[in-house]
Prior knowledge:
- The protein is mostly helical.
- It has 17 helices and 5 strands.
- It comes from Desulfofundulus thermosubterraneus DSM 16057.
Amino acid sequence: MLDSLRSAVRIDELRSKLLFTLAMLFVFRIGAHIPVPGVNTEVFAKLLQTGALFGFFDVISGGAFKNFSIFAMSITPYINASIIMQLLTVVIPSLERLAKEGEEGRKKIVQYTRYLTVVLAFIQAIGISFALRNQHVLVSPTVGHYLLVALTLTAGTAFLMWIGEQITEKGIGNGISLLIFAGIVSRVPAGVVRVVEYLRAGTINILSVILLLVIGALVIAAIVAVNEGQRRIPVQYAKRVVGRRVYGGQSTHLPLRVNQAGVIPVIFASSILMFPEQLATWFQNTWFGNWYLAFFAWGTPLHTIIYALLVIGFTYFYTAVIMNPVDIAENIKKYGGFIPGIRPGRPTAEYISRVMSRVTLAGAIFLALIAILPNFVLLATRIPQIYFGGTALLIVVGVALDTMKQVESHMLMRSYQGFIR
């Protein structure tokens, strides 16, 4: 990795892309500290300590939600809009046809995703503004002030979406993912300072810190192994004679990734479980609040089991949405290919579906273990108020691997161009 970075810095084009990406990330971090006008940030910071849902948003936004800055909602509405568009592409035939039209169709879908992002961001901002009306966070709880806060948050999300697209087009790529990556990594120094303070106060010992580092290294290694893991199905293409030339006849493979769904199932499951917990925290003195916090609070056995089952279920669901065995089998047949020992058409689709189910099971179990990892890390290290989330590690490691692949692809393309010249 370090050798690739050194080589990339020596190339003028890649160096300018890297500098542009760093400049955009710097703008993002500056905006994370610009507060929304008319908001009492101290009261809001105390409110964050009363629920896991707000803490989860704060991790994704890199502290911008805690500061209630203009980037408080981060890029979450864009992620939700992208997921909704993917689901609608499967359900609505016109969008499905649009997705198969190549580059022009992809641009149309991206444009629809932008519009949907602004709509979702405004709805979410209005919801946040009205949810805080009884918490003494807004200085002047009037209709005009609600609208000001909502428009400011929506504009911040739209600006972040623009930054992400600029990084994708003019920077190193993966703009939206890099924004989430930068937000999570920005919290690492504060966590290190907190650990040092605990060591000085005698709250923890050095063995707990060493154990935390060892667990972190093992988890990172496991994430890399699973993200890079593939089940390769061999595909053979028949020879075709066109005039005096022979086309095809080569052997290739169909890669099925172990973790095809990425981190999306964990985010889905977390959001579903955190929302009722946040409601129960607001209504602690009611029968619902007491009952829910007693049996389904974060860290309880029931919560852990339900969390793991939801992650496994969403992994299968999202993998089925983004990977259609019937379409894959049709494309293989269209270009004259076949899987050795399997008839083209429906038998090929059924074979791919069976293999995908077995591979997805391994990925789903891995994601479930990563999701419930913080419970066991807290019991093993007993380090209080240290966020060691498997979700955050999964995002950071995945984005780092994708970014390095982007850098290497740019370097490889430059080598090909130099060879042709």
